[in-house]
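I am still learning, so would you mind making up any protein sequence you like and the tokens describing how it folds?
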Amino acid sequence: MRSYRDIIEEVKKEIPEVTVDEVKDSQDRGEDFVLLDVRDDDEYRAGYIPNAVHVTRGMLEFSIENYVPERDKKIIVYCAAGLRSLLAAKSLNEMGYMDTTSMAGGYRDWASAGYPTMQDKPMSHEQYERYSRHFTLREVGQKGQAALLESKVLLLGAGGLGSPAAVYLAAAGVGTLGVVDSDVVELSNLQRQILHRTEAIGTPKVQSATTTIKSLNPDIEVVPHYLRLTSDNIMDIIQDYDLIIDGCDNFPTRYLVNDAAVLANRTIVHGSISEFEGQVTVIRPHEGACYRCMYPAPPPPGMVPS
């Protein structure tokens, strides 16, 4: 019966190997290839080579086509020390990939050589469980979740539009949510403003929003801004955030937010709704038309319900 060592020796005769120095030289020359990390999730979380594609060895045959659909693409595979990568490269060959190579010495030799490595934001065991469904999404994964936890979003309005936005951003793990609102919770709000509860009637909406968000996801830092936005305070507020979600209910504030965002170069997501119709607009300053460009002047008073 063949031993594991026997199998590795046979695979080495079939799969070419390259050193970490050769891989780094290929990167420096700008060669077109996929660097594939087949280590387990816990190994990857401890550190990885920048721009590597991560597919665990156990999921390789099931998932590789999602990341590398072209069978003629050059692939350099690495693991911890260069053994699993040989077996992974052989499996890729058997699947029809025509140019697969194993990086001898793996991540161990790469790190020892002092070449660049990265590590995503460390997460607790509870966070790994809370966001586990995100990790299975190729478009999010651990890198995406780490970016969400580091991001800061400012919500303008904690009403009918701001409420669902806040709930889903908090659930998704957006690390910091600023909430701007100068109103208090009223009974008539509760049929649609899901941030608020009956016991919050009469309290500031930003206070109620903070309580609800923290109960949903204690990870989230909530910054309440119990005030009305003005030209005197808006620049100081928005400069601390990466993205603005505008769910306000009046045109003067929309124009104020637009002008401030253009000056501060902040992206705005505008939302508006009337009965059963809604509209969403994303505005990236200096990359397209702003709100004032599209609507140079607000409608006459009374023409549009708030």
Observations:
- The longest helix spans residues 251-264.
